[in-house]
Amino acid sequence: xxxxxxxxxxxxxxxxxxxxxxxxxxxxxxxxxxxxxxxxxxxxxxxxxxxxxxxxxxxxxxxxxxxxxxxxxxxxxxxxx
Length: 81
Prior knowledge:
Layout: E1 8-12, E2 19-23, E3 30-33, H1 36-62
Antiparallel strand pairs: 1-2, 2-3
């Protein structure tokens, strides 16, 4: 099984103390937790759920089309550079 790395932001709600985790590469992959650890654990579940849902939709849309991977070099204006 291959692994892919995603970027997740963690932001604490000052009123509740809960931490929100949001995956920058996958809109909709948002979760929360009472601690950073639980927020990150929950974010992994959210990312997996979004990827599984997208895969199901793509299988229906693509049909018999060829699927290929492409590599793109990041630019120097990358968000985290």
